[in-house]
Amino acid sequence: MVFLLALSLLSSYFTPSLASHGLDGGGAFDTAGPHSGQDVGEALPDHIDPNGYVLYCPCMGRFGNQAEQLLGTLDFVKSLNRTYVVPPFVIYPPEAKKQSDRVPFNKWFSLKVLKSVHRTITMEEFFATVAPVVWKPGSRIGHCRTYANMKQCNHKEGNPFGPFWNHFGVDFDGYEHYDLPYDAELPSSKAAWLERFPGNKYPVIALAGAVGPFPMDPQNWPLQKIFQWSSTISGQVKKFLKEKFNDEKYIGIHLRNGIDWSNACEHVDGSSRYSYMASPQCTHGTDKTVTREMCLPSESTILKEVKKVAKKTKAKFLFVASDSDPMVAKITKHLKSLKVTVVTYSPGGGGDLRVELAILQRAEHFIANCVSSVSSFVSRHRRLHKRPTSFFAFSS
Predict the structure, then answer these.
(1) Sheet containing 389-391: which strands, arranged edge to edge?
(2) How, if at all, do strands 53-56 and 83-86 pair?
(3) How many CB atoms lie within 10 A of CB 173?
(4) Over the chain (396 residues), what is each successive 10-residue block's mean pLDDT?
(5) How many Å is the Cα radius of gyration of the chain?
(6) What is the pTM of this model?
(7) What φ, ψ does residue 50 adopt, rounded to 5°?
(8) Residue from 248, 169, 175, 238 nearest 208 by CA
């Protein structure tokens, strides 16, 4: 149900009124309007990729969802052998009253590993150095998936879509539609994309949203390696671990118990689900179904499983990251006999989620929320580095 709702919301930004965007009945762009800002016959400057570029708005969900779709879209772009224009993350600062803002990828993460995986340029650099050559104002075409009985394609309708493209000064001059599969690793799919949008005619494919699925395909989990923290975040983590834990081992847990999360978990009740949001991180490869207890673990489940891991690891510190209630007093009382100190990154609230995730990645043992994409960001990293992870209310 949630997946279908998300699909419905996203699809509202994709096509059907073709004539109003210069498209004929067969889907060919009106030849009176250019496909790009670069004539096909011109020699390209050295810094321009002749295979073209792919860019999109990361406009579904918050950090965890955006990270999963970033990896899926990277896989898609690799298959087409175009340059990946990695977008900034879309955030919603509390003080902005539900308005969106943007954080460049390289503020939180290093570009070095991502560039070693595939040709990459940040969206900020793209508009500074590439767009003036191949995607000039007046020739900026958006690309829309064709859906029956849907409204006119508009990449900029609503928040965060409008503010995102406005930030880069983009007004779309027309739209191309397509009805192509996103699994470009399949030879037939890749051939269809290359035939429909050859790089010499379409140097830029500008999508309304990410083409990577949510939850992401488990085969793309290894791509998590591209998320290497920036020196700023790594420095904050190193300082915190030294001051709070004296570099001794600690357990990490992630608690989702805010009102929005509680409401989302209501969709699990009374149904048999094999997948819900980011649950493949724990259910993939098993015959387990998702339960409400896995989505919103009870206090007794949390206390029981934390104590079990504390005894096993003999760790004297427990780090808690939470979207609402970190349960510090209750956990401290429950672990009193084990003399475990419970720590949060920012006791007063407002801590940096990225720093918390980096701390959880380094824990001796991590207890995750099976359904949360924020937990899955950590669990994918730990899977790559063969560090133990368990999930509340789930036994493999």
Answers:
(1) 341-344, 317-322, 251-255, 365-368, 389-391
(2) parallel
(3) 16
(4) 40 32 30 41 80 95 93 94 97 78 95 95 98 96 76 86 96 92 83 94 95 82 95 95 94 95 85 80 88 95 97 97 94 97 78 92 98 96 96 87
(5) 23
(6) 0.84
(7) -65, -15
(8) 175
